[in-house]
Design brief:
This is Prolyl 4-hydroxylase alpha subunit Fe(2+) 2OG dioxygenase domain-containing protein. The protein is α+β, with helices and mostly antiparallel strands and about 230 residues long. It contains 3 helices and 13 strands. The strands form 4 sheets. The chain has a 5-stranded antiparallel β-sheet with strand order 9-13-12-11-10, covered by helices on one side. A 3-stranded antiparallel β-sheet has the order 5-1-8, with no helix packed on it. A hairpin with a 5-residue loop joins strand 10 and strand 11. The two termini are about 25 Å apart.
Length: about 230
């Protein structure tokens, strides 16, 4: 999978400072977790293009208001490009509605609320799921990821809800939760806004973990994608 980001305005026209796109190395020269190594300043018409795997850790710096009493507005268009034709068959049924449901009355959705200490990262609609079995599979997966990228980087726990799992980062600046609801999986970031925001190191490693988690969900739903045409040769 490849990705790109196209800037639609600049810092000046959008009344903001910060908001730069960056790439970061997995590790810094002193052996610690990486810091931004390449920074792209927003400019109308400027595009950054890259492969969207763990080889290109990336993110955006916080946006800050430039002129008082005027709202900052950072405008950018993010795009993803699928290069594996097999993924075209995998993605639609994972997020689509079941066949024959076009005329059925939609069920009331679960209410998902963002607060200053809780940010919704992903909402994945599911046609159906065996909640207990999926939770157990994800639990084993998260436990195996606790030492990624280094020993004791993460701590896997069960959440306050019986269908919730959490992953706490080692600097304790933030954690993310996975909640299995009736027809949706939600992933939130949780921080203590009275102490500090999520660290940059957390955000970099969270991106890696969520990429890996999505791969695991695809494997659980559809089986592992193998090389070859599947004819057994």
């Amino acid at each position: 999978v490849a990705a790109s980001i196209l800037y639609l305005n600049s810092q000046q026209s959008g009344n903001y400072d910060g908001g730069e796109f960056y790439w970061a190395d997995m590790f810094s020269n002193n052996g610690g977790l990486g810091e931004p190594s390449v920074i792209v300043t927003p400019k109308e018409g400027r595009m950054a293009f890259f492969t969207a795997g763990v080889e290109n850790l990336h993110g955006a710096l916080p946006v800050e208001r430039r002129v008082r009493d005027e709202e900052p507005r950072r405008l950018a268009l993010a795009m993803w490009y699928v290069t594996d034709e097999r993924l075209e068959e995998v993605i639609p049924p994972f997020v689509g509605r079941p066949e024959g449901d076009d005329n059925e009355e939609e069920e009331e959705e679960d209410v998902i609320i963002d607060t200053p200490s809780q940010k919704l990262l992903m909402k994945i609609p599911i046609q159906s799921m065996k909640t207990g079995a999926l939770k157990l599979s994800l639990w084993f997966h998260l436990v195996k990821q606790q030492s990624n990228p280094t020993k004791k980087s993460w701590q896997a726990n069960e959440g306050v809800d019986e269908n919730m799992l959490t992953m706490l980062y080692r600097d304790h600046s933030a954690l993310f939760s996975i909640t299995l609801q009736k027809n949706v999986i939600t992933i939130h970031r949780h921080v203590d806004v009275h102490v500090r925001p999520a660290s940059l190191q957390y955000q970099l490693q969270e991106s890696v973990m969520l990429h890996d988690l999505l791969d695991e969900l695809v494997k659980l739903a559809f089986g592992k994608l193998e090389d070859g045409d599947g004819d057994g040769d």
